[in-house]
Amino acid sequence: MVYAIVKAGGRQEKVTVGETITVDRIDQAAGATVTFPALLVVDGASVTTDAKVLSGVKVTGEVIDEVKGPKIDILRYMNKTGYRRRQGFRAQQTRVKITAISGVK
């Protein structure tokens, strides 16, 4: 089993080939190919963390579509003053299907 830890949108994601992940919005159209930098690669019993070796590893994926994340409710309240403020937020996200992890020995 081969998997990789990649940096995607300010976070690290564990990915395998064929898996679909949700990352922060990527400015690419549906069907476009994106690459992610690998931080760690596990190939069976061998674990690769060397930066020189990982520079040759490419994790590629295909953009499926754009979605909205879960709604976050923000409520500010101060008692005895009548101050209330309500706000909501939904992050724009992109779904990516991992197609290949290449360059692994």
From TrEMBL:
Top-rank lineage group of the source organism: Bacteria
Keyword annotations: Ribonucleoprotein, Ribosomal protein, RNA-binding, rRNA-binding
A matching Pfam family: Ribosomal_L21p
Single annotated GO MF: structural constituent of ribosome
InterPro entries linked to this entry: bL21-like, bL21-like_sf, Ribosomal_bL21
GO annotation (BP), single: translation
Transmembrane domains' residue ranges: none
A single GO cellular-component term on record: ribonucleoprotein complex
Assembly behavior: Part of the 50S ribosomal subunit. Contacts protein L20.
Family of this protein: Belongs to the bacterial ribosomal protein bL21 family.
Function per UniProt: This protein binds to 23S rRNA in the presence of protein L20.
Record's protein name: Large ribosomal subunit protein bL21
Recorded name of the encoding gene: rplU
